[in-house]
Give the backbone structure.
Amino acid sequence: MEALLGNERLKKGLAAAFAADRLSHCYLIAGPAGSGKRSLARILAAAMECTAGSGRPCGVCLQCRKVLDNVHPDVITVDDPTKKTVTVDLVRKARADVYIKPNEGLRKIYVFPRAAEMNAAAQNALLKVIEEPPDYAAFLLLTEAAERLLPTIRSRAVPLQLAPLSEAEGLSELAKRFPDRSRDALAEVWSRSEGWLGRAVQLLGEGESLAPETRSFADCFARRDKLGLTELLVPLERRKREELIPLLNQWVELLSGALAVRAGQTGRWEAAERIGRSRTSAACLRALESLRRATALLQGNISPGAVCGALQVWLDRNE
Ligand SMILES: [Zn+2]
């Protein structure tokens, strides 16, 4: 249970339910990206499978460990991250599987990491089984947008809404995870995280790995800021080829990340998530193509000045 920080009220309620053996067979775990939805789903699944007599999830029995290491055969993720939505076929497959008894666990638990990406047909297929499931089956629906689920599904699920952490909780956890950062640097990032620890961690990781020009590119591209892009590219004309190629490669990686976000995966960078949320896949692909062309020209010995100029025209035309 300590794996989920803050959220004391929610944890107290769940601990009471665990102790009294009053677990529901369907939970709706809601909260934005980086709020701890997956951590909470793992805790719930472990509590359902745990073989300890009390204090579930104990975190040390074989069943708990398998769940926490994501290798339990009876905890099944229903998602195909390469697809934009969670298809009705995927849900039907899970529904057929529900009637096969658990392999080794006490329960068979179906985790839907992108529950709101199910269309109406998929949700209706799910509804049939959550209305009358076998007694060993459980469903954990994770979402950033609970309102997109059918009221008939929501009414059958116990809602678990994740809450942001307090500044004190967040800063103390960040200080543990990033002991080399100054208090001020952590406080600055925390102020941009809206209280979501996962987001703050992502922002801190990003500061290490993304060039400042890449962050500017992400800002401008996400906002469709043409002037900003020009202002970013003009000074780059004077950069050396060997500096420019890795930079453009990072932009390519960023846009690939944004496309992965659009396909429902979790982004490695907050900047990629921002682009993925604000731009279409087609726009990302067009920019990606332009950047690849620019890199190829640089590798073909065309001058940085000419390449940055061409890139400006292409990105501008893409908009
Ligand atoms: Zn256990």
